Amino acid sequence: MISMKAVLLKLPDDLVNAGDTCAKSLGVSRAEYIRRAIRRMNDETARAKRARDLMRASKKVRAESARVNAEFDGIEADLEA
Fold first, then answer.
1. I want to staple 28 with a disulfide (CB 3.0 to 4.6 A). Which of 10, 32, 51, 75 is the partner?
2. What is the pLDDT of residues 21-33, one digit of tens each?
C-alpha cells in the first residue's frame, strides 16, 4: 500500500475551476489531477537542477579542457610539419 499524507490547499477559485475542467476532460479526479501536476513540476525542477549542476561542472573543467585542447593542437601541428 502506498503511504499518503493529506495536504490542505487554499487556491483561487479560478485556478480550481480550471483544474476541475481539465481533470474532467482527462477523466480523472481533482486529487489525481493535482498529484499529476505536482509530479510534473517535481520532474521539471529536477531536470532544471541537473542542467544547472552540469553547467557548473562544465565551467569548473573548462580551463583544463582548453589547456588539453591546446596541447593536442600543438601535437597535430608537429605531425603536419
1. 32
2. 999 999 999 999 9
Domain that holds residue 55: 13-80
Convert 42-69 to b/e letters by CB count within 10 Å (16 or more is b): eeeeeeeeeeeeeeeeeeeeeeeeeeee
Q: Which residue has the cell 476532460?
A: 25
Assigned domain for 2 exists: no
Alpha-carbon span 37 to 53, nearest angstrom: 24
Residue 54 lies in a domain: yes
| pTM, entire model | 0.69
- Render 30-42 in DSSP notation, one character per residue: HHHHHHHHHHHHH
Chain centroid offset of residue 68 CA: 31
Given this model, what pLDDT does residue 59 score? Answer: 82
